[in-house]
Every structure is written in structure tokens, then in C-alpha cells.
Amino acid sequence: MSLLTKLFVLLVAVLSLVLSGVTITLVTSANNYKVAYMSQKSAATAARSGMAETERNFKSAVTTRNAMVKLLQKDIEFLKAQMTEIQASNKRLLAEKNIAESKSVTATSLSASQSNTIEKMYVGQNELRDSLTQAHNDAMMAQAKSIDLARELSSEKVKYETVRSVYRQLEQDYVILEEENVKFRSQLQSVGIADSHFIDKSDQVDYQEVHAGRSAIEGQIIEVKSDYASISVGSASGVRENMQFIVYRYDGNEPSYLGDLTITRVEQSEAAGLLKIKNGMVLSGDSVTTKLSN
User: pTM of the prediction?
Assistant: First the structure.
């Protein structure tokens, strides 16, 4: 047997062993491949189920993303509008800045001018201080004098009120005496005796002069009801029953006569009586004054 033949036999033996091992391996792996196939099939089923779930989630995510995109588009439009407003505001602010800078230049110029003026004012500051000191002293003296005058005025007001009170009392006494005098004369006339038998002509009182010496009672109409009217003065001002008032109204600077008022009711601060209208119409706010009689 040649060497080549030996090598061929050896090669055939080796190949036989290799093929036997491969065959054994294939037979052994067949079952493993079957198990792996079933496993892969289950994995594929699970993968398809997962893919369907993933697809649903993807669609939901796409829907959500589209909604977010729309919101973002609205936000972008809003931001664009704000940007436009900001740009317009920036332009306005820039214009205002330019105006402010111009005013600043003007103010700087005025400041320099005022500085010069202030420097000139400082020159006369001492004189002004002296003048203010003198004026303060004069004001203090004037204030002291004003206090003294106020005290004197207060004292005079007290005296005036005292005299006025006494005068009103005397006036009331005079009215009462005059009424009693009228009643007394009426009684004398009723019995046929002239009052001249009891009155000395040299001692007779001139009632016209007495009335002329009295100050008139002034007031205003506060209410008008038909031919009855109320006035703003009463017994405290000397008003008595049967006293007559002239009713008038100022037309420009001239008083306009309206009629007469005869007092029938008297209270402390107001009175009322019968109204006899002679001219026009009497209204609230019209003026009244006492009518002097002989």
C-alpha cells in the first residue's frame, strides 16, 4: 500500500468521524431548534401584541402632540402680537428718550442760568436776612398789638351787648307804656274827657320823635300762606302784637314796596300776621321792616 493510499484512507476515516459528529450534533440540535422555534413564535406573538399597543400609544401620542402643536401655534401668535406691541413701545420709548434728552439739555442750560442767578442771590443774602429779621420783629410787635386790640374789642363787644340788652328792655318798656297810654286815652274819650285836661303841653312827649329815635326792626319773610305770612324776627327783637311791618324787595339797588304785614302772633324768634299785598306777589325771602306811625 502506497503512502498516498494510506493518506486517503486516513482522510476518509477522519471525514467519517467528522460526519458522525456532525450528524450527532444535528440530531441533538433538532429538538433544540424546535423548542427555540416555539419560543420565537411566542415571542413574535407577544411582539405583535406589544406592537399593537405601541401603535395605539403612538397614535395617542400623535394626537396629544398635535393638540400641543396647536397650543404652541396660538402661543406663538400671541407672542408675535406681544412682540409687535413691544416693538411699538420701544419706538415710543425711544422717541420719549430723545425728547427727554432734549429736555435734559435744556434743563442743563437752565440749571447753569439758575446757578448764575443763585450766585447773584447769594450776594444779597445777608441784606435779605437782616430784612427778614427786622420783618420778624415787626410782625411780633404787630401780633402783640393785635392781641391787645382783640382784647379791647372783646371788652367793647361785652359793653355793646350790655347796652344793647338794656336798650331792648327799655324799648319793650316803652312799647308797654305806649299801649297803656293808648288804652288810657281811649278810656278818657269813652267818658267824654279830653286828655288835654291832664297833659301839660310843655311836658307832652313827641311820639314821632321817639319813634324816629328807635332803630327799625328788620327781618325776612320765611313762609307765605294765602294772606298769612311768617317773619324771621320775634319778641327777642322787640316785635309785639298789632305792630305793622312794610314788606319790600330790592329791585337792583332800589327797594320795591310790596305791601303791609300786621302782627297777630309773636314768639321769641319769629312772628306771624295778616298780609295785605299792595303790589306784585310776596315770596319767601322778601324783606320786612317796621312801619313808623304818628
Answer: 0.31
